[in-house]
Structures are given as structure tokens and as C-alpha cells.
Amino acid sequence: VLYTDSSQLPKSEYDFVVVGAGTAGNVVASRLSENPAFSILVIEAGGDNAGIEELEIPFNAPAALGNASLFWNYTTTPQIGLNGRTLAYQRGRVLGGSSSVNFLVFTRGSRDDFDRYANVTGDDGWSWNSMFPFMLKAENFVAPVDHHNTSGQFNASAHGYRGPLLTTLPGFPSAIDPRFIATTETNSSLLPFNLDANAGDTIGLSWMQSTAGHGVRSSSATAYLQPVLHRPNLDVLINAQVTRLLSTGDENGIPVLRKVELSQTSSGPRTIVRAKKEVILSAGPVNTPQLLLLSGIGDRGNLSALSIPTIVHSPGVGRNLQDHPLVANQWFVNANNTLDDISRNATLANELLEQWRATKTGQYADGPANQIAWLRLPPDPAVFGGFGDPSAGPTSSHIELLLGNSFASFLEPPPPNGSYISVSTNVVSPSSRGSITLSSADPFDFPVIDAGFLTHPLDIKIMAQAIRTAMAILSTPSFQGFVLAPHGALANATTTSELEAYIRNSVTTFWHVCCTAKMGTSEDATAVVDSELNLKGVHGVRVVDFSVLPFLPAAHPQAAVYALAERAAHLIQSRWAA
Ligand SMILES: Cc1cc2nc3c(=O)[nH]c(=O)nc-3n(C[C@H](O)[C@H](O)[C@H](O)COP(=O)(O)OP(=O)(O)OC[C@H]3O[C@@H](n4cnc5c(N)ncnc54)[C@H](O)[C@@H]3O)c2cc1C
What we know:
It is built from 15 helices and 27 strands. By secondary structure, the chain is an alpha/beta fold. It comes from Artomyces pyxidatus.
């Protein structure tokens, strides 16, 4: 049952209280509620996703960033690596969390990413082979909306067909798709073709897979939560912000935190609910460390500076922040069939919207890109010298190229005329680290977010190589006469120092913030949770969201979040099986 006010809740004690109905939280709530013996409450700060068309239209995802009511509208601190610029740093604040607002890119990461999680935690349950069944369990791979022949575009054995989350291939051809495919044929060492980047080895150019089905976004809200809202053992409270976890005493000298405090407004009354078994913290990699710190779990020195009594001295909370830096590079092209007109021509945009409404087909049924490339750089000492390889291994990339048939930018509006393509570049295995700290002890004050972008010298070198690789690809025969010139400052960035200046002025976030409550071994004092995601130093709390990974996967995150939440639900069910 969905409740909008805490006074409507039928009870104040549940077996499980899930904080955050986001990507991971809804997976856990949905799976736990399969057992009618368990009672579950999910608490979400945002509102209902149902009926919000702008969240349903795949092509609309970037535009939805303009609707502030769907987001935590965070801003970073001035970024030292970005000439002091601050960045918009939104997170989803609605049922489904960031899975309701993201750009639908569905990439799992590599075999080496997951094997590294297993190695650093000492728990083979995180290895690729152990996680693969959970990846399949989450997924229902469906035909693209245009029902084109998809042979040669994916590996059927790498996908699930009975899970809740709909995934699919592009359903509307883009004019640049065949050009990149042609480059994989003429210049395969520069741009190899990869049948399916979600099959363990990510390297090469692959067809995009998206979290959509039948032309509509699939999120943890639409796939996992809404279909089970009728279950009598599942309650969901929206528009309610958890303000902290509270102690309920101790067991054998270890504090127990099975009490959750929440409020619907900053000055409103605080309500308490209790978990008989576990509190599952799924507030995401910004809000989970914030809530832990507000609850007295964090670095003792920092907490006492804000007069927050320390329950557990856990210096890793909010540390180890990793994110993917994005540079949206654009090229002026000789074409009349890019997607630029959609943002310039209201009649065309309206026609596409009406087509989508009527049949869920056409350009609006696809996300912003049809192809994506994950590439490794040669072991050039001039790039890696002294630092070593930051990637998890040979199946993980150093750089990403996201290929778009229009002018993509998060810094400037599209030019009024001309046709463009974009290759957004990413340092996939970043070495820079940032942090989440509290600005005050008030839970309604935003936390301090330092994304740490380009603070490690390796990352800017790799980003420069990513842009050079994009330029090399756009110089191959299939782009002759088509690509005319780089746009803007990129056109004048010839020397290394000019290119690095362009990068520092251009980086924004890919919105992949991660790793701020990482899992690790009992010897690792900076690990916040153990490898079964139990909060270290207390009883009664697990963290289940993207905070817990010790490293970013070499991928867009959501597929890893679904898989880790499926595994977490399995661990919790096993722990409490009668
Ligand atoms: C604009 C954008 C684009 C992205 N594009 C992609 C993409 O194309 N592909 C991809 O793989 N990934 C993408 N990502 C990243 C991906 O969506 C996230 O990494 C992932 O969804 C995180 O899942 P999570 O469960 O950790 O957190 P979230 O899904 O963010 O869930 C956290 C939930 O907790 C709620 N919450 C937070 N604090 C509280 C509180 N105190 N009380 C109650 N509720 C609370 C939030 O409102 C939210 O619903 C994108 C993200 C954004 C923001």
C-alpha cells in the first residue's frame, strides 16, 4: 500500500525498514515481500513516479533534468581540478530514485570489475561468475520497438528473459550507426567490434542496451515496486525523509540501530518506526553517508566538530568517493539527418511526442545514443608512467566513447544552426577521489559534495587520450567528408596543454557517484560494511546501494546496482529464513 503521510501508517514496527525507494531499495523491498511472513516498510523522500510522462519517454531523459521537483538538486564544492568550477550534481528524488531519471544506459561492467570486488572483500560471492545469475535474475531482455533483425547485435546467452527489469536494443536507427560499424571493419585495432559488452568482456564498440521495453522506461519503480504494491505485507511511505537512525540499546556491547526517525518537513514532527529484523539503508551514495554521519557513524573528529555523539568511529564513511568525469565533445558535420532539429523545431518535437504517445515508437522510444565504445589504452609510459594500470584488468576499459547523433552538452545550449555529432568521453577507471561530509547536523541541509574530479594527475592524461582516440576514429574513411570540424574550444586545442585546459573547462559529471560506504574485509578500517553489507560496528543495519562498491565498475552503474541489490536480497532472505 502506498501512503503519503506518516500518520496513515498502520503500524510503527516492521520486520524490515528500507530507507530509500531507489534503484536498490525497490529491488530489496520487492524480493523480501515475496515472503508473506515478512513485513516491510519502504520510506522515500520523493514523490510518486506514476503517471509522470517525462519519466517514461526514453529520449526525454536529459530534458527531465530541468524538472527540479524530481531531483535532489545538489551542487559540488568548487572543484580544484576544474579551475574552481562547481557542478550540478543531481540525484533522483522520486519512487525509483535515480533509475527513474537516468539516461537508461544499461552496462554491467566487466568480469575483472567483479573479480576485483571478490578479491578486495575476500568474498567470492562478488565474483563475476557468482554475480552473473543475479544479473540474469534482474533482467527481461525484450525485442526493440521496431522489431528489426537483431542478430549480430547482442549475445543472447548473456541475458535474462524472466526478470522484472525490461532491457532492449535501440528501436530507431540513427544515421551515424553504420559509420561507426564501418570503422570497426576498416580500423578494427582502433575500434574493435564487441557483440555484447554485457557478457563479461566490455572492450570494443557495441550496440546500446537500455532499461526500456516496448518504448517506455523501465525503472526499479515500474519493474520491481509497482507490480507488488498490492502485497499486504508491503507498505511504502512517500514524501518522507529519514533524518537518522537511532540506537535501541546494545547486544553484547555492540550498539543496535533498529529505530528510524523520519519527518515530512524540516520543521515538522519527527516520527519513529522500528525494524524487528533489519534497517536497510538504500539512500544512494550521497544520502547514505549523510545519514550514517547524522546517526553518529563516521569519523569521530568530524562528528564531534558538529556535536554529533559518535556511536561508531568509522573513518571511511563518505570517503573514497569516485565518479566518472564527462567531456561532451561535439563535431560540426555535413548532414541533414542529425537529431539537432528536434530541439529547434517544436512542430517536429510535437510530432515525435504524438507518435510516441500513440504507438510508443519512433525517435522518442530510444535513449540518447545507439552505440557505445569501451576501450583500453596501450601501456604507454607517457600516460601511465609511475602510476600503473588503474583498471580492474584486461576486460575493463580505460576510456568510454558515447556516440550521439546530435549536439550533446551539459554546459552550453545547442547552436541555433548546423548539424552536429557528439562523442562524450569518460575516464572509466578514475584514480581521483572525493568525499561526502556534513555541512551541519541538520538533516535537511545538503551535505558537502566534493567530486574530486581530475585531482589525480593520471585522470587528465587518460581523458586527453580519450579525446585523441575519438578524433582518430572520426578521421577514419567512413567519416571522410562527413565530419567537418570540432566545435568550440576543442577546435583550438592542439597541444597537450591546450587539450588539458579544454578538459578542465569542460568536465561535468556522468552522475555515477559511487563507493562512499565501501565494503571490505574486517582488517580494512576504512571499510564501512562487511562483504555481506552489514554496517560494521553495529547490529541491525545493512547498506544496499551503490555506496558499497569499493571501486566504480567500468560501466554506467545501474546494472551493477540491480545485480548487487538482487544478491543483497538473497543474503537477507537466507539470514532470516525460518
Ligand atoms: C541524471 C542521471 C543520469 C544517469 N544516467 C545513467 C545511465 O544512463 N545509466 C546508468 O547505468 N546509470 C546512470 N545514472 C546513475 C544510476 O542511475 C545510479 O548510479 C543508480 O541508480 C544509483 O542507485 P542507488 O540505489 O544507489 O541510489 P538511487 O537510485 O539514487 O536511490 C536512492 C533513493 O533514496 C532516496 N533517499 C535519499 N535520502 C533519503 C532519505 N534521507 N530519506 C528517504 N529517502 C531518501 C532518494 O530519493 C532515492 O529515491 C544516472 C544518474 C543520474 C542522476
